[in-house]
Amino acid sequence: MTRLSTAVRGLVTTLATLLALTAASTTAQAKTEPKAPKDFVALRTVDPTIIQEMRYFTPHNFVGERIDGYRQPLCILTRPAAEALHKAQKRLLRQGYTLKVYDCYRPQRAVDHFARWAEDLDDQAMKAEFYPNVDKTRLFVDGYIAAKSGHSRGSTMDLTIVRLPAKPTRPYVPGEPLVPCYAPQSERFPDNSLDMGTAFDCFDTLSHTLDPRIQGEQRVNRLLLKSTLEAVGFVNLAEEWWHYTYKPEPYPDTYFNFPVSSKSLTRQ
Asked: Which of 238, 204, 221, 182 lies closest to 99, judged by CA?
């Protein structure tokens, strides 16, 4: 065997070893990605009629970019929460309405993303829409951002009501002019939901479910959402008209970190 062929064989062997190590590393990473417990489900498998507009998969949120951990625009919940939501949906369908979810299970990595953003005081790209009257230095103090979220336990969701037939909602265009989330519904970013007085994720006291300044049709709409969900076991967070948690929670003390993806629900 010549020196050249020996050298070539050595190079091929080295490359094969590197490829094998890379493949092994990739496989190991895939195996270590956390999975959802068996009683977590995709909402669409329990009720495909509920509209899903998963805001944190898009840049139309208070951060202004897709949030860590949202790999698909998918609502994932514990099965008891999803089945209770199905019961609420049946009640609303009889009245000519449908539910629409903005967010469901939220991985801890997404909450961490929110916290990093909140600490970056120079990044206020979405302030004009989502927190026009709140100084960003107060987001933690005032409770708009926290180190932990009930969403990560799997039985909390953000949602609203849409009148049927549901009109399409146009896509958000990054960089478009922003309008305060508490502006009249005809002026703020178009949403096909009932008028709740503010948009979803509006960091303002007007978002408090029973804020006395919200009256008339807007109050009626909030109370329709509240009474419908409470009748099937949900509890509202008083500071956010859109935020509900199913009780009793299957995982009241566990904060999960698996990605929002159908692969997280795949049983190995």
From this structure: 221
Q: What is the pLDDT of residue 91?
A: 98
Helix (H) or strand (E) holding 115: helix 108-119
- Say how far apart CA 201 and CA 241 lie, in whole Å: 9
Strand, helix or coil for residue 83? helix
Active site residues: 240
Residue 235: partners with Cβ closer than 8 Å, 6 or more residues away = 244, 245, 246, 247
Reported as a pLDDT band with limits 50, 70 and 90, residue 32 is confident
- pLDDT band of 140, cuts 50, 70, 90: very high
| Tens digit of each residue's pLDDT (9 = 90 or more) over 125-139 | 999 999 999 999 999
Rounded-to-integer distance, Cα 76 and Cα 44, Å: 9
Q: Are 138 and 205 in contact (CB under 8 A)?
A: no
CB 85 within 8 A of CB 47: yes
Q: Where are the beta strands (DSSP E) in the chain?
A: 40-42, 51-52, 76-78, 97-103, 156-163, 234-236, 243-246
Q: What tens digit of pLDDT does each residue of 76-91 get? A: 999 999 999 999 999 9
